[in-house]
Sequence to fold (129 residues):
Amino acid sequence: MQTVQLYAGVLGLLFVALSVRTLRLRRRMQVAVGDGGNIVMLRAMRVHANFAEYVPLCLVLLYLLQSQGAGALVLHVLGTGLVAGRLSHAYGVSGEPENFRFRVVGMALTLGVLVSASVGLLVGAARAH
Fold:
C-alpha cells in the first residue's frame, strides 16, 4: 500500500466529518450563509476552512516526496503529524472559550509537516541535478 494514500483517506474522512458538523450547526442555528453573528458558527467555519487551506497542499507535498523515493518511516511521521495537527487544531479552535494550547500545537504540527516536506523536496531536487 502506498503510504500517502492512507493519510489522504483518513484526512478525507476527517474533512467530511468537519463538513457535516458545520452543516448540522448551520441547520440548528438557521444560518444559511456566513456566521450569523454567532461565535460557535464562526469557529466551526474556521476549523473547516483552515483544514481546507492546509491539508491539500500538505498531501500534494507528501505525495511528491513519496514519488521521489522517501522512505515509509518519513512519510508515516509526516502523515501522522498532519493528522494529529489537524485534530489538535480542530479541538482547540472549536471550544468556546478557545483552548489556545491545542490550536498552537495543531498549527505547529501542520506547519512542521509543510516545511519538512518542502525542504525534503528541495533536497531531493538538488540531488537529482
Q: What stands out?
A: The chain has four helices and no strands. Residues 3-128 form a domain with the Four Helix Bundle (Hemerythrin (Met), subunit A) fold (CATH 1.20.120.550).
